[in-house]
Design brief:
Strand content: under 5%
Keywords: Membrane, Transmembrane, Transmembrane helix
Protein name: Membrane protein YdbT with pleckstrin-like domain
Largest sheet: none
Structural class: mainly alpha
Oligomer: single chain
Distance between the termini: 32 Å
Shape: elongated
Helix content: over 70%
Radius of gyration: 24 Å
Organism: Chryseobacterium rhizosphaerae
Length: about 200
């Protein structure tokens, strides 16, 4: 087999493996992508609003020790949020500027979505240490009618952490599915149609 035949065979194999996406299919893909972009923008602005509100609440907290603890805690949450939102921003840019002309390009996009799903759930779970710190601050600074025993403090702390982790995980999954997951499922459905 000479070089030209080898090149032709190679190009034929590539063409067969990467079918083109029709304009009609691209339009079907663009609708869920646009909804996801809209949801990402809304979530970004909500998070900014929440942090502005949280820092405003910190500014009126007294005594100073409580204000300091809460400010450091919220600043730490902000750092974690900036890290994860930088990952989400990369995905936002990728789906904004995507040229979905082939099956492989769509497959890569679905892979990015699945990776970002893991980032999203990790984002919610990463708030577990902050939850523990918030509970400790509440236990330390709320005036109780009578001092709590060590057993009560342990039960409140462990119970709150277990319930809090469950709520964080569940809310992360439900939030992701509501705002992103169902759109990703539609795109995965189109990917499966192309595979056939």
């Amino acid at each position: 087999m000479n070089i030209d035949e080898l090149k032709n065979t190679w190009n034929d194999d590539i063409t067969e493996e990467t079918p083109e996406i029709s304009i009609e299919q691209r339009n079907k893909i663009n609708l869920p992508l646009e909804k996801m972009r809209k949801n990402m923008r809304q979530e970004f602005w909500w998070i900014i609003g929440i942090f502005i509100f949280a820092f405003m609440v910190c500014s009126v907290c007294r005594p100073f020790k409580l204000q300091l603890y809460i400010t450091v805690l919220i600043a730490s949450m902000l750092i974690v949020t900036v890290f994860f939102f930088s990952k989400f921003f990369k995905l936002y840019n990728e789906i904004s500027n995507t040229e979905l002309k082939t099956y492989d390009a769509l497959k890569d996009l679905v892979t990015q979505f699945n990776l970002n799903k893991q980032y999203y759930l990790s984002y919610y779970i990463s708030f577990a240490p902050f939850l523990v710190c918030e509970i400790l601050i509440v236990l330390e600074f709320i005036p109780w009618p009578k001092p709590l025993s060590e057993t009560k403090i342990a039960v409140i702390l462990i119970g709150s952490v277990i319930i809090g982790l469950f709520v964080l995980f569940l809310s992360g999954r439900l939030w992701f599915h509501r705002y992103y997951g169902r759109h990703i499922q539609r795109i995965e459905g189109l990917l499966n149609e192309l595979k056939k």
